[in-house]
Specification:
Layout lengths: L20 H22 L4 H28 L5 H24 L3 H27 L17
Helix pairs in contact: 1-2, 1-4, 2-3, 2-4, 3-4
């Protein structure tokens, strides 16, 4: 294996697909950022250099959870309160994992934390994906109607 070719931490596969375009796209984004962090770690970069990637990953995961929460609310998902509470608690755990990784200068801790989240998140999807796939709303839908002429 060439020095420049590094294995991915988590390889995207079809079992991750939820058949909800925005969710699948964000899941790919989470894994892409996670794999970028892993790539940089394999090159031995210190936490300070990795901080922008770690920050981006943390924010993207929380952004993803907010997106799912919004879709679930619109679908009147029976477990929305538990989902929201779980996302809030996860956010607090995420901050702690970030601080621990930074204080110990061990970004691998954060990488492992996100990997564990990813695995549990996929399990969560087993229950909620039917509610996501019934989502019929549009994001950023633009209506280009011409103004009426009198």
């Amino acid at each position: 294996m060439s020095k420049s070719i590094k294995p991915l931490y988590i390889v995207w596969n079809d079992s991750f697909v939820q058949n909800v375009p925005i969710v699948d796209e964000q899941h790919r984004g989470v894994l892409a950022t996670l794999n970028s962090l892993h790539y940089f770690l394999q090159n031995g970069l210190p936490f300070e250099v990795l901080k922008p990637t770690v920050d981006m990953l943390a924010k993207y995961v929380m952004f993803h959870l907010k997106t799912e929460e919004q879709i679930l609310r619109e679908q009147e998902y029976f477990g929305i309160d538990a989902y929201s509470q779980g996302a809030k608690e996860f956010g607090e755990s995420l901050k702690k994992a970030y601080e621990e990784a930074r204080n110990n200068n061990e970004p691998e801790l954060f990488l492992f934390f996100i990997k564990q989240w990813w695995q549990s998140h996929l399990i969560l999807h087993e229950d909620m994906t039917p509610y996501l796939t019934e989502f019929s709303g549009d994001y950023c839908k633009l209506d280009f109607h011409k103004p009426k002429q009198d």
